[in-house]
Amino acid sequence: MADSAVRIGLVLPDVLGTYGDSGNAVVLRQRMRWRGMPADVVEVHYGDPVPDSLDVYLLGGGEDEGQELAADYLREHAGLRRAAARGAVVFGVCAGLQVLGTSFRTGDGRRHDGLGLLDVVTGPGKRRAVGEIVVETPAGPLTGFENHLGVTTVGPGSRPLGRVRTGTGNGDGTDGAVTGHVLATYLHGPALARNPALADLLIGWVTGSPPADLPLPEVDELRRERLRAARGGARW
Ligand SMILES: NC(=O)CC[C@H](N)C(=O)O
């Protein structure tokens, strides 16, 4: 990888910023800097051009209205889609997951086209999924909190990120979706703060090899605490 800084795109934090997922950009940047890799966050606001030259694109959660705006904007300003086509890393959370899919229906029943970077379709569920969620994945158990109405079906062009142990996720026992270097989940937290292994998976995709271990006792403790809290009352 070149010496130039890794550029992390925080995509539309003004319309997809309701659930604190912008913190994922801070975590990615810091975990790279701690390892001596220069990294910068580039915020792409609604109304800005969407560059196709960034290394990572992060999309967070938001209300239906914001999600609708984001999907329309990112279909019209195709920088993110062009970047994904050349293999850039994309990470979406909740509304971000739904926007990255082929289509979604909002709570009012209206259908919207997504970006088609993941083979997922979302529609409104019967009740809102709210609370702690734990997902078993190849990167270990992930914890987060969820707050969404959407129920997501993963088609053959993607695979689920993992299996739900506590909580709802996609609504069928799985959570999230992955295709190539596009990965999305229902986990807020921010997910990359609670789950350093997931942050490092994305960093490895960006740099082309898994990053060196980063021993951080306070991060490990936060992780243990969240796992304990999520397991409270659960039979596993
Ligand atoms: N937390 C979110 O991003 C919510 C996404 C979407 N508006 C839903 O309710 O399903």
From TrEMBL:
SUPFAM superfamilies: Class I glutamine amidotransferase-like (SSF52317). Keywords: Cell shape, Cell wall biogenesis/degradation, Glutamine amidotransferase, Hydrolase, Ligase, Peptidoglycan synthesis, Transferase. One of its GO terms (molecular function) is glutaminase activity. Residues 7-195 form the CobB/CobQ-like glutamine amidotransferase domain. Substrate binds at R128. The active site is at C94 (nucleophile), H188. Forms a heterodimer with MurT. InterPro entries: Class_I_gatase-like, CobQ_GATase1, GATase_3, Lipid_II_synth_GatD. Belongs to the CobB/CobQ family. GatD subfamily. Pathway: Cell wall biogenesis; peptidoglycan biosynthesis. Pfam families: GATase_3. This is Lipid II isoglutaminyl synthase (glutamine-hydrolyzing) subunit GatD. It catalyses: beta-D-GlcNAc-(1->4)-Mur2Ac(oyl-L-Ala-gamma-D-Glu-L-Lys-D-Ala-D-Ala)-di-trans,octa-cis-undecaprenyl diphosphate + L-glutamine + ATP + H2O = beta-D-GlcNAc-(1->4)-Mur2Ac(oyl-L-Ala-D-isoglutaminyl-L-Lys-D-Ala-D-Ala)-di-trans,octa-cis-undecaprenyl diphosphate + L-glutamate + ADP + phosphate + H(+); L-glutamine + H2O = L-glutamate + NH4(+). The lipid II isoglutaminyl synthase complex catalyzes the formation of alpha-D-isoglutamine in the cell wall lipid II stem peptide. The GatD subunit catalyzes the hydrolysis of glutamine to glutamate and ammonia. The resulting ammonia molecule is channeled to the active site of MurT. It comes from Amycolatopsis methanolica 239. Its EC number is 6.3.5.13, 3.5.1.2. GO terms for biological process: cell wall organization; cobalamin biosynthetic process; peptidoglycan biosynthetic process; regulation of cell shape. The gene is gatD.
